[in-house]
Amino acid sequence: MCGKCGKLDKNWLCNKCKKELKKYYNLQIDKYGEPKNFDEHIYLFKYEAAIREEIIKYKFQEKSYKYKMLTKIILSKKNTCDKIEEYDIILPVPISKERKKQRGYNQSELIAREISKNLKIEYVKNVLKKQKNTVAQSLLNKEQREENARGAYTLKNSKKIQNKKILLLDDIFTTGSTVGECCRILRSASPQKIGVLTIAKD
Ligand SMILES: [Zn+2]
Q: Of 3, 63, 120, 201, whose CB count within 10 A is highest?
């Protein structure tokens, strides 16, 4: 089935939908001046149009099967695959136990695992944990988001990422508060490099 239109398709993304989404595809690598706790931010779309609709459905409307289609589109360009393979390890931004129970899946984890299955990059679990169930970031402004993210994550099994090039995956980048806080915690394990990969940037 095509994860976008529902038409029968063994590749999870039909040619018509692939063509439509690819119109917006534009690999960007940003390095931010202010201290953001990571070295670079890689993203593929602006958070708009068809890709915005798909991410909303994936994340908030229980359409968990869309992870296959979203990963297909991420992996459909060689320059993006090459960039991802510069890293040793991929891991997702975690969600709290309560949120995972509610939603049934961690949207970033499904995509990170699928990327690891298809490219030469190892998926590691149980490194970053979300210890408190915070208010959804989408409901808050920039200052509130930073406050909300602070202290929400803890590090486990830090040896797994020591001296490694690690890539943190999230779905959307808005103010960068969530990934910034995650990377601040990851830094304490002394990885060699930290990159952030998101599908889109708002
Ligand atoms: Zn389709």
A: 3
Neighbours of ion ligand 1 (CB under 5 A): 2, 4-5, 7, 14, 17
By DSSP bridging, strand 193-201 and strand 40-46 are parallel
| CA 40/CA 42 separation, integer angstroms | 6
**Fold (topology level) of 27-201:** Rossmann fold (3.40.50)
Instruction: Let me know: does 112 contact 90? Beta carbons within 8 Å.
Output: yes
What does the chain come to in residues? 202
- Distance in Å, CA 143 to ligand 1 centroid: 39
Percent of the chain with pLDDT over 70: 100
Each residue's pLDDT tens digit, 26-70: 999 999 877 679 999 999 999 999 999 999 999 999 899 999 999
CA of 21 to the centre of ligand 1 (A): 10
For residue 19, the CA-to-ligand 1 centroid distance in Å is 9
Per DSSP, what are the bridge partners of residue 140?
none
Across 99-108, average pLDDT? 93
Res 138 pLDDT > 90: no
Q: Which two tokens stand for residue 134?
A: 């915070």
